[in-house]
């Protein structure tokens, strides 16, 4: 033990020396380590700053635009329609229309100063144009120089956005797009030393401290714009000392790497300036549109002062909820600007007398959920969902807000009227509408339910329902492809029919009215939508042949080739039905339904374009015959009720009603020369609604087209080569002449018209009038 | 919907957008049209024929299709073509087709652009649509059949090409 103690004492002395060395060494090491750690920390911050600042700075929502309105001589756009479009675009009435984004009504003329807009194909410059109207049409365009202009494409309305999941929204602006006055005002109010300091402004901190001490509370912040940016960008809202230190270091680093202009531009786009429900309004570009309904370039002094004032507290100074506070804040900013020499005192005083100029809260850009659904699904084939939500893509769609409005009105009012008239429980009936351009297949309107703003179940795209008689044209297309066997005049027996099925059962189709008519010509079987003759024709031509036609029309779903398919045991969505009828409207050319024309990057570079495509899938002569029969459906068949709404004859409307068992689904599909629409009505629980196609969907279709009447062109199909016309006696299906009452003129594939004369026409000239006397 | 025509120009998308670009580029490879082939019969693009008047049969539309805007857009298409921007030219013709969808000459014009892009099937289909809209315009029909013949030959359908040429010749004979 003693030995041990001695040793220890010796050791202690030695140890004391050693410990002093250790301490020094530890201190040195600690200092080095500390320095290293500090350096690593700074380097890490530096890395973060550079990677995040240079990489993607913001997740930008995709902007979805409606079709641009095209104005040209003869365009079927009335003055009211143009004014409505201008309102959607945020144009303001100003005498003389001096600036882009303004217009002036001068009697029957509309003076217009358009905004610059980057389209897929090129940029439209701002133009000064006078538009003349004649009734519901454009009569002419003149430029300010007195010349004429063939065509004017307005900027398209922004109708939707695909938001990032955090719902931050912004409209990016470049520094050169920001009014100089806004920049000066911002700097003057938020960070007077901005152009001089290196990220942190000691003088401002001292000033703020002094102000706080005098007031005995935190009244003034000494944060520079750079620090504010760092805080928003990399750090949270926490106010700890460590955070402050980090913020300061990062601000210094940011200034080291980037120019004042870059930092300012980032700030202008980052700053939080308001809230719109779940949507956070970031950046001055979007705030200008959100509060004033116009682009940043078009702001005047009072509005700029209001926006700059908002930086301090967007919800406290919210000009919509707290207009008085907002006004006081704005006027304070104006006084400050005058004090600091940014604007003249008189100018500031004048601006302080101006109203706030805030527009009512714009609709939440969620007006067209069903159409957006279609756009998103079509784009999902080439774009990842997260890219759609974050890359700031600019998506140009085919949506026509005027047609969409007409479709929504027709559906909601039509449904309400039907429920009243039929004594249906209120709110029980549902429906969907799809409207296409009949030439190009562009989707113009999609309504997914009776409440068009409700972004739930989209019946236009997702309600797959049996189409009933909507399928019949396919049966006749298959049959008429054999002109040696069938023509529109061929008589078919409308008599009881029983077909033994493979499973031992019997299929016995009946007509809607439960009557049998004896022999009827083919065209009438389609016009009257007779089930039994259609089933006979379909069975003879063969169910597989009908399935083949449905495929050609564009139906992609698996189809079960049973006899019941002939009478509509095929389930389609309204959109699919519209696509199939489009092939009839185009004379046998399948044309993909498109909701998107082009996609551009956030910077305006073209990414993809969705071109007009078409494919010849059916004999144009056969389609011509069926289209003729479909015109008779509207003129004299099951859709004759359309006459209540429209000049059916003049418009040459072709269409088809569809009704399913127990009146569960009510369909109408039809087209004019330029518009095709499909309407479905039914219940979500698939219970009967008591409406046939004619009693239900047709009424909505009629309302819809009546609403579009001035823009409709007649359906006048071009007669293909190899068609002949003949007058037919519908009773015998044979050749008629002037002596036959009720005869009809029908088209035939050349060589297939009946040669035999009908009994009423059999006699040669002189005898005929004699016979008429005796008959 | 058919695959879109992709036109990637400068890679201006920020780095984080690269995956998107990669996807698009891959899609582009799948659908990128082959380079236009030189055609023995002259320049790939001839001057557009003047748009045909309204459809020859059937009731005349209530309003005659506007000529001014269509001609202006055809000028635009021609300028784009000269600048080598075929997709831009197609976009202009499609714009014209929205104004005058029954103009057979416009469909033919679009068919020519697709032919120059090497999109043989689309070229033929568009020419057929042009034929269907003006079956009695023999000169235009002959041009459409010539175009179809070229598209078919390029696709390797020699019998089909000969048949189309025969029809073109018959029309030209009758027209001349």
Q: What is the 3D form of chain A?
A: elongated
The largest chain-to-chain contact, stated as pair and per-chain residue counts, equals: A-B, 68 and 63 residues
Series of H and E elements of chain B:
EHHHHHHH
Q: What is the CA-based Rg of chain A, rounded?
A: 37 Å
Low-confidence stretches of chain B: 1-63
Largest sheet of chain B: none
Which range does the strand content of chain A fall in? 15-25%
Average pLDDT of chain A: 90
Estimated structural class of chain B: mainly alpha
Determine the mean pLDDT of chain B.
Answer: 73
Span between termini of chain B: 42 Å
The counted number of beta strands of chain B is 1
| CATH top level assignment of the largest domain in chain A | Alpha Beta
Helix fraction of chain A by DSSP (H/I, runs of at least 4):
25-40%
Radius of gyration of chain B: 18 Å
Query: How many domain units of chain A?
Result: 4
Distance between the termini of chain A: 151 Å
Shape of chain B: globular
Portion of residues within helices of chain B: 55-70%
CATH architecture of the largest domain in chain A, by name, is 3-Layer(aba) Sandwich
DSSP summary: helix tally of chain A: 24
What does this structure look like?
The complex is a heterodimer of chains A (775) and B (176). Chain A has 775 residues and is α+β, with helices and mostly antiparallel strands. Chain A has 24 helices and 33 strands. In chain A, the strands form 11 sheets. Chain A has a 5-stranded mixed β-sheet. A 5-stranded mixed β-sheet of chain A has the order 3-4-5-8-9, covered by helices on one side. In chain A, strands 17-16-30-29-28 form a 5-stranded antiparallel β-sheet, sandwiched between helices. Chain A is elongated. The N and C termini of chain A lie far apart (151 Å). The mean pLDDT of chain A is 90. With 176 residues, chain B is an all-alpha fold. In chain B, 60% of the residues lie in helices and 1% in strands. The interface between A and B is large, with 68 and 63 residues.
């Amino acid at each position: 033990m003693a030995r041990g103690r001695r040793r220890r004492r010796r050791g202690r002395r030695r140890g004391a020396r050693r410990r002093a060395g250790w301490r020094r060494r530890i201190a040195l090491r600690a200092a080095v380590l500390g320095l290293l750690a500090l350096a690593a920390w700074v380097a890490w911050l530096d890395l973060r700053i550079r990677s995040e600042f240079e990489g993607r700075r913001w997740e930008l929502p995709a902007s979805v635009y409606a079709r641009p309105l095209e104005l040209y001589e003869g365009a079927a756009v009335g003055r009211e329609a143009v004014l409505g479009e201008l309102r959607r675009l945020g144009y303001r009435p100003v005498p003389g229309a001096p600036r882009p984004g303004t217009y002036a009504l001068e009697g029957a003329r509309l003076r217009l100063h358009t905004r610059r807009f980057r389209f897929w194909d090129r940029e439209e410059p701002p133009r000064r144009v006078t538009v003349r109207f004649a009734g519901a049409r454009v009569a002419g365009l003149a430029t300010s120089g007195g010349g004429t202009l063939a065509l004017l494409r307005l900027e398209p309305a922004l109708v939707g956005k695909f938001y990032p999941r955090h719902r931050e929204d912004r409209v990016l602006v470049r520094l050169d797009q920001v009014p100089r006055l806004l920049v000066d005002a911002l700097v003057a109010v938020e960070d007077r030393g901005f152009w001089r300091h290196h990220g942190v402004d000691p003088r401002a901190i001292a000033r703020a401290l002094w102000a706080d001490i005098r007031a005995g509370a935190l009244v003034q912040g000494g944060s520079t714009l750079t620090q504010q940016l760092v805080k928003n960008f990399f750090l949270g809202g926490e106010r700890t000392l460590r955070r402050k230190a980090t913020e300061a270091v990062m601000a210094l680093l940011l200034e080291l790497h980037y120019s004042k202009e870059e930092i300012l531009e980032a700030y202008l786009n980052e700053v939080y300036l308001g809230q719109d429900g779940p949507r956070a309004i970031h950046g001055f570009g979007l705030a200008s549109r959100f509060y004033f309904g116009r682009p940043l370039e078009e702001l005047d002094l009072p509005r700029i002062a209001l926006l700059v004032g908002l930086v301090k507290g967007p919800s406290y100074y919210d000009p919509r909820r707290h207009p008085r506070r907002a006004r006081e804040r704005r006027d304070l900013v104006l006084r400050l600007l005058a004090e600091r020499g940014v604007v003249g005192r008189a100018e500031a005083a004048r601006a302080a007398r101006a109203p706030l100029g805030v527009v009512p809260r714009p609709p939440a850009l969620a007006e067209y959920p069903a159409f957006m659904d279609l756009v998103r699904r079509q784009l999902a084939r080439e774009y990842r969902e997260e890219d759609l939500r974050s890359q700031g893509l600019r998506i140009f769609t085919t949506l026509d807000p005027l047609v969409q409005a007409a479709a929504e009105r027709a559906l909601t009012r039509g449904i309400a009227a039907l429920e009243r008239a039929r004594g249906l429980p209120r709110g029980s009936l549902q429906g969907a509408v799809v409207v296409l351009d009949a030439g190009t297949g562009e989707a113009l309107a999609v309504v997914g339910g009776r409440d068009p703003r409700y972004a739930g179940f989209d019946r236009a795209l997702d309600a797959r329902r049996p189409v009933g008689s909507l399928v019949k044209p396919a049966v006749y297309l298959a049959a008429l492809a054999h002109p040696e066997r069938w023509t529109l005049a061929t008589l078919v027996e409308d008599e009881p029919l029983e077909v033994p099925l493979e499973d031992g059962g019997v299929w016995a189709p009946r007509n809607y009215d439960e009557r049998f008519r004896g022999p009827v010509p083919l065209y009438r079987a389609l016009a009257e939508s007779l089930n039994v003759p259609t089933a006979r024709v379909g069975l003879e031509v063969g169910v597989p042949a009908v399935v083949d036609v449905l495929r050609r029309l564009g139906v992609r779903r698996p189809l079960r080739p049973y006899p019941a398919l002939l009478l509509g045991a095929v389930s389609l969505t309204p959109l699919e039905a519209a696509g199939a009828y489009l092939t009839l409207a185009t004379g046998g050319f399948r044309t993909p339904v498109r909701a998107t024309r082009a996609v551009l990057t956030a910077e305006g570079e073209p990414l993809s374009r969705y071109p007009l495509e078409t494919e010849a899938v059916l004999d144009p002569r056969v389609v011509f015959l069926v289209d003729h029969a479909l015109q008779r459906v509207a003129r004299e068949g099951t859709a004759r009720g359309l006459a209540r709404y429209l000049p059916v004859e003049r418009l040459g409307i072709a269409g088809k009603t569809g009704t399913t068992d127990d009146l569960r689904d009510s369909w109408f599909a039809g087209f004019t020369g330029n518009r095709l629409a499909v309407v479905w009505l039914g219940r979500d629980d698939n219970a009967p609604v008591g409406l046939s196609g004619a009693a239900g969907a047709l009424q909505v279709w009629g309302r819809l087209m009546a609403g579009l009447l001035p823009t409709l062109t007649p359906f006048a199909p071009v007669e293909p080569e190899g068609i002949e016309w003949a007058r037919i006696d519908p009773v015998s299906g044979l050749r008629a002449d002037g002596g036959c009452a009720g005869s009809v003129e029908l088209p035939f594939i050349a060589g297939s018209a009946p040669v035999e004369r009908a009994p009423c026409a059999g006699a040669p000239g002189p005898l005929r009038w004699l016979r008429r006397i005796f008959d | 919907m058919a695959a879109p025509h992709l036109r990637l120009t400068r890679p201006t998308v920020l780095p984080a957008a690269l995956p998107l670009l990669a996807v698009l580029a891959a899609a582009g490879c799948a659908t990128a049209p082959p380079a236009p082939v030189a055609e023995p019969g002259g320049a790939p693009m001839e001057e557009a024929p003047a748009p045909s008047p309204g459809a020859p049969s059937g009731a005349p539309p209530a309003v005659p299709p506007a000529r001014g805007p269509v001609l202006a857009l055809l000028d635009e298409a021609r300028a784009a073509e000269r600048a080598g921007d075929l997709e831009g030219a197609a976009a202009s013709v499609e714009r014209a087709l929205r104004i005058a969808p029954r103009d057979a000459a416009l469909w033919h014009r679009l068919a020519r652009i697709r032919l120059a892009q090497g999109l043989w099937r689309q070229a033929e289909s568009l020419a057929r649509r042009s034929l269907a809209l003006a079956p009695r315009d023999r000169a235009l029909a002959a041009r459409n059949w010539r175009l179809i013949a070229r598209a078919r030959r390029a696709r390797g359908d020699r019998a089909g090409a000969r048949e189309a040429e025969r029809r073109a010749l018959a029309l030209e004979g009758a027209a001349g």
